[in-house]
Amino acid sequence: MEKAIRGYEYFREKLLPKYREFYALLAQGQNPDTFFIRCSDSRVCLWKLLGIEPGDGFIAGNPGNIVTPWNTVLGGDQAAIEYAVKVLKVRHIVVFGHTCCGAMNALINGPESVKEQLPALSNMLCMCRTDHMHPLVLAAGDPEKAQNALTELHVKQQMLNLDTYPFVAAARATGDLQVHGWIFKIADAEVNRYDASTDSFVHLI
């Protein structure tokens, strides 16, 4: 908390004089091109990693970058998708996963493993439609390989879950919207993207 307060003090004293006009312009509205559905993990910083500035991206986050299928539980995450596509009319949605994810650990062990301590997370993991995949990746043997494989499967499934939203599917059909799957490899500070032509994740650039 102290670091955040010191950062705000620095912003007010050193940076704000240069950006007053910029923030005045932002107050008139937003027009982001991309909607990021990211994990809440503190290690995933879009500003440092991608240079996302205020107004550049509409962002929603939850543990595990989960997209609950349409009409399962109407709430904050689904409201964010509605607003991004219907109101802001973003051109891109990025499902942004990452390695070393606690939610993926829970999936490997099975959502029931955290149900007593984290019932809300357990429920979301069950709804994200990846929970049935964890036995498949356990066959990889190596825990790190298993988690990385599950992370890729999970991101791909959340992309499919987006298509259960009628307005997402409609916008994609007309070419007004593209859905992407990205994974941040924390140890390498590298972002990989899903390539549908090869059904694999490749370096973003």
Portion in helices: 40-55%
The structural domain count equals 2
The largest pleated sheet is described as: 6 strands, mixed
Q: Looking at the structure, what is the overall shape?
A: globular
Task: Record the strand order, biggest sheet.
Answer: 2-1-3-4-5-6
What is the CA-CA span between the terminal residues? 35 Å
Judged by helices, strands and strand pairing, the structural class is alpha/beta
- What's the CATH architecture name of the largest domain? 3-Layer(aba) Sandwich
CATH class of the largest domain: Alpha Beta
CATH superfamily of the largest domain: Carbonic anhydrase
Mean pLDDT, to the nearest integer, reads 90
How are helices and strands ordered from N to C?
HEHEHEHHHHHEEE
Number of H- or I-type helical stretches: 8
Beta-strand content: 15-25%
Low-confidence stretches: none
Which topology of the largest domain does CATH recognise?
Beta-carbonic Anhydrase, Chain A
Give the beta-strand count: 6
**Radius of gyration from the CA trace?**
18 Å
Task: Explain how this protein is built.
With 205 residues, the protein is α/β, with parallel strands linked by helices. It folds into two domains: 1-29, no CATH class; 31-203, Carbonic anhydrase (Beta-carbonic Anhydrase, Chain A, 3-Layer(aba) Sandwich), CATH 3.40.1050. It has eight helices and six strands; from the N terminus they run αβαβαβαααααβββ. It has helices at residues 2-26, 46-50, 76-87, 102-109, 119-127, 134-138, 143-162, 166-173, and strands spanning 34-39, 57-62, 92-98, 178-185, 190-195, 200-203. It has a six-stranded mixed β-sheet, with helices on one face. α4 packs across α7. The longest helix has 25 residues, at 2-26. The two termini are 35 Å apart. The model has no long low-confidence stretch (mean pLDDT 90).
